[in-house]
Amino acid sequence: MLNLQEINSKELKIILKKLESQFGLKDINFLKKYLFVKNNKKKVFITTKSGRTEKFCIPRTEKAGMYFATINKDDSLRLSLEGTQFLGPYATKNIFELDHNQAENWLKGFDFDMPKLDDGYYLLKYKQDFLGCGLIKQNKLHNFLPKTRRLKNLYE
Q1: Residue 92: CB partners within 8 Å, gap ≥ 6?
Q2: What pTM was estimated for this model as a whole?
Q3: How far apart are CA 46 and CA 121, in angstroms?
Q4: Do 87 and 100 fall within a single domain?
């Protein structure tokens, strides 16, 4: 059974420091006005603080607010598509600009080879749009875009 629990201030500080170190987020104090919760699968959700007591009284609640990130086994954070779009404009580090073909392949769900970059999570950007968070490992970009959100080729 999945249950939501509010992330306490100590754990929230750790998450904010990870965001700062992974993506170079500087002024992220605006995030403190939101409520962060997680489930047993280490998925982090972000929601408003209003009505916080009523939200968690429902039995077997699995989600609240917007899916924001996943806490990995190595304690790194993998942002969701919405989390990427929410924080992307504030990021100064680990952003990879995709060209048109790369962006199209990313949105179709493909993994592909990358230039020599350090291993880790990167925010993927095409022009002004943030398209998600990918893992670069051994010069290969791994796609985490859910199948339900991938582009389909309309001409096949």
Answers
A1: 23, 24, 25, 26
A2: 0.85
A3: 20
A4: no
